[in-house]
Write a structure and sequence with these properties.
The structure holds 2 protein chains of 2 kinds. Chain A is an alpha/beta fold. Chain A has 6 helices and 14 strands. Chain A has helices at 13-21, 32-36, 49-59, 61-70, 80-83, 188-200, and strands at 2-5, 26-29, 41-43, 75-78, 88-89, 92-95, 102-106, 118-123, 125-126, 141-146, 148-152, 158-163, 167-174, 177-180. Chain A starts with a strand and ends with a helix. Chain B is of the alpha/beta class. Chain B is built from 10 helices and 12 strands. In chain B, strands 1-4-5-6-7-10-11-12 form an 8-stranded parallel β-barrel, surrounded by 8 helices. In chain B, helix 8 packs across helix 10. The longest helix of chain B has 12 residues, at 59-70. The chains are: A alpha/beta, B alpha/beta. Chains A and B meet through helix 1, strand 8, strand 10 and helix 6 of A and loops of B.
Chain lengths: 204, 259
């Protein structure tokens, strides 16, 4: 069973539908107790980091998620969920979850023809082996919508990069946590393949 | 770099797929959900449902349809037609649409763009505009005028001004539909598309006039569009999404090929 955390940050039903499409048993919850019992977690999210963090703290979901991470539960972060697992964000002064060392930063693009948000299909280049990225080949594209991106402090936590006025980290991993800036639930067959791999991933 | 996008538009009336020619004489041509799934598998980068149902009573059919389609297609999915309020927009969003398109109602009350952008985010707020060529006047210096109510009512509003205003008000994307070329299959309105694409900082989707893959190639290069919308050339089986994409790819331009 995959537990999808619903913390009032965007449309999570698309993640639920994509899980069903790959045959995964999944449910959404905003109850920290349900998160504490989860055997596998997807932490999605679209929108502002500040209000998301406030909501997580207010509900106790922040602690539940940290505990699950410490307990070795496999976690997949998506988009905003790949950003606020780091320690801080340029979006605001608040502390983020701090599951992985690093900071979320805003695109600073020299090329003024490039638009923000970075929205559309772009290539995901795998730079380090990870079981969740196994099916990705050179040239494979995924769907992005974001103005900020995660910047892990350690290069070893960066698993894939995407070029948008320079390479940025689009997939990060640390222990039983893996997170993508792109949306596997909106990236067609390739995205579904990633979710299918997550379904079978033991977090190692 | 981002790939340019191929967007397939399905005009839906009372739950059925319809296709219009020059904005009049619509005829029904099939089940929109099955078609959407087919285009998704064939490599469309995005799907748009445009509700051309005249009566408000039938709007619930659309919500149901959006929900069904959202469980069949795992790429961005956009819905438009008759969206007049934040409630309309959030209802469609909750049913599974990533993006909502506003058109006539935004011309009548432009604050609607800002309200929807605040509710669902700019990245999910698309301003769709129907445009016709006119002789330039002091009021319409660009020579392109906004028309509403499905392309039949002139407004006296300059399309270039409206595009920039839409961006300022919070739209995250623009659809530029030329009613002069819609349904003609003679190619997109390159001059209009480029004029607007060069004037705004948000993505521009060209619409109207696609007849062959070359037309898409032209509007995505010369026309400076970020995406091109197609309807009848794929609905009637003249071309597949794959053929359109292969054409662009063969001419050395970036397009998503792995699907």
């Amino acid at each position: 069973m995959i537990t999808i955390i619903d913390y009032n940050a965007g449309n999570i039903r698309s993640v639920l539908r994509a899980c069903k499409e790959v045959g995964a048993d999944a449910k959404t919850t905003s109850d920290p107790k349900a998160v504490a019992k989860a055997s596998k977690i997807i932490f999605p999210g679209v929108g502002a980091a500040t209000s998301a963090m406030e909501y997580l703290k207010k509900t106790g979901l922040d602690v539940a998620l940290k505990d699950a991470f410490e307990a070795g539960v496999p976690i997949l972060g998506i988009c905003l969920g790949a950003q606020i697992v780091l320690e801080s964000s340029e979006e605001g002064p608040m502390k983020c979850l701090g599951l992985v060392a690093g900071k979320t930063v805003r695109f600073k693009l020299k090329d003024k023809t490039l638009k923000i948000p970075h929205m559309g299909w772009n290539e995901v280049k795998v730079v380090k082996h990870h079981p969740l990225l196994d099916s990705i080949k050179a040239g494979d594209e995924f769907y992005f919508v974001h103005s900020f991106y995660p910047r892990p402090a350690e290069n070893e936590n960066i698993y894939a990069v995407t070029d948008y006025g320079g390479n940025f980290c689009c997939a990060l991993g640390y222990k039983n946590l893996f997170a993508t800036q792109f949306h596997p639930e909106k990236s067609g067959r390739l995205g579904l393949a990633l979710l299918e791999r997550f379904r079978g991933w033991e977090g190692k | 770099m981002l790939s340019k996008r191929l967007i397939v538009c399905l005009d839906v009336r009372g739950g059925k797929l319809a296709k219009s020619i020059r904005f009049v004489d619509t005829k029904d041509i099939g089940d929109p959900v099955a078609k959407a799934r087919q285009y998704y598998e064939d490599g469309a980068d995005e799907i748009v449902f445009y509700d051309i149902t005249a009566s408000r009573e039938k709007r619930d059919i659309m919500i149901d349809l959006v929900e069904k389609a959202a469980s069949q297609i795992f790429i961005p999915f956009s819905v438009g037609g008759n969206i007049r309020s934040v409630a309309d927009a959030t209802k469609l969003r909750n049913a599974g649409a990533e993006k909502v398109n506003v058109n006539t109602a935004a011309v009548k009350r432009k604050e609607l763009i800002t309200e929807i952008a605040q509710a669902v985010g700019s990245q999910s707020t698309v301003l769709s505009m129907d445009v016709r060529r006119v002789s330039p006047t002091p009021k319409i210096p660009s020579g392109y005028e906004i028309v509403i109510n499905g392309g039949v009512t002139p407004t006296g509003i300059d399309a270039l001004w409206w595009a920039k205003e839409g961006e300022r008000l919070g739209a995250g994307e623009l659809v530029i539909n030329s009613i002069d070329v819609d349904g003609t299959k003679d190619g997109y309105e390159l001059k209009l598309t480029r004029l607007i694409a060069d004037a705004v900082g948000i993505p521009v989707i060209a619409s109207g006039g696609a007849g062959k893959p070359e037309h898409l190639y032209d509007v995505l290069t010369e026309g400076h569009a970020d995406a091109a919308l197609v309807a009848s050339i794929v609905h009637y089986g003249e071309y597949t999404c794959r053929q359109i994409k292969d054409y662009r790819h063969k001419r050395g331009r970036k397009i998503r090929k792995s699907y």
